[in-house]
Structures are given as C-alpha cells and as structure tokens.
Amino acid sequence: DDKPKSTYSVGDYYNENGKRGVVFHVWDGGRHGKIVSLDETRAVWDSRVEWDSAIGFTGGTRTYADSESDGKANTDKIMSRSDSQYFDAFEWCRAKGSSWYLPARDELKQIYKNKDKLNSTLSQYGTAIVNNYHWSSTECVDYKPEFCAWFVGMYFGNALSYYKFDDTYVRAVSTF
Predict the structure, then answer these.
(1) Full-prediction pTM beyond 0.90?
(2) In the chain, which ranges are continuous DSSP H helix?
(3) Which of 1, 50, 60, 74 is deepest in the core (most CB within 10 A)?
(4) Residue 1 scores a pLDDT above 70
C-alpha cells in the first residue's frame, strides 16, 4: 500500500517522496490532485488581533489573501510578509514543507464534501477530521478584512466569517 501509484482516487492514502496525506480532489484522470494532512492542530489566524471592550478590535492587518479557491496563493502571500510569524495557522501548515498550505474556503468545502471517505482513511493513518470549524486561508473582504477570515464548519459544510483571533482547527493541504 505504500508503493507509489500512478493514479489516485478521492479517499486514497498518498505516500510519495516523504509527503503523506489523503486525497480529497483529483484531476487529469487521477494523476494529479490535492491531499489533506494526516493531522490537525488548533491555531489562530492572526495572533495580533485582540478585542478591547473599550475600543473594539485592535491589531488587525488586511493581507489581501482573499482567493476563495487558491489556498496556495493565499499562503504564499502571507508567508512572504515580513510579519508572517504572527499568522499561526499558516506557519503550522508551511512547517510541513514548502508545498503545504492553509486551504482556501472552497478547498475546505471540497474536504467537507468528501469527509466520510477521508475519515475512513484518516482513521487508519492519522487523525479523523473533527466536526468543528476549520480555518481557511481566505480573508473576508465583505466585512472587516483586517479582523475577519472565513472558516468552514465540518458539521454541515457552511462557511462563516469570524474573527482572526479565534483558536480553531487547522488542516494543511498540498498538491501532487
């Protein structure tokens, strides 16, 4: 099962060249696709955002990481910033290697759609995806982008904008 395959399907265990995960999206007949990490953590989106009851939110930064479908582009934007060390969720994903990133909102929705297949494999090789909110790399452009980003609930697949200081679940994604 650990031998490299030429094609993959959603739910397959991926283990090639030191990169391991579970396939959640394929194209080109399964020769290319995206994998989700075998583990998850909890982290904040931006550790500088705070709530002050006297003045409201402080410490926020608009990053323009606002692609709804390209988490790699969003993560590259954040990681190229001089203040990237404050973006804990992104840092955790990128620490897995340069090809790993925090998924965009629509990528998380794809993960949700295939959650049962993914969890079947993750239960054998890693940690199943919990039924809770997971950060996306997509900043919310409609409402306070300096303080808010999107997360996706793994209960029903709903996307909600929330404050970047929330310590919530994070899964990394990579392509093959």
Answers:
(1) yes
(2) 71-79, 88-94, 105-113, 115-125
(3) 74
(4) no
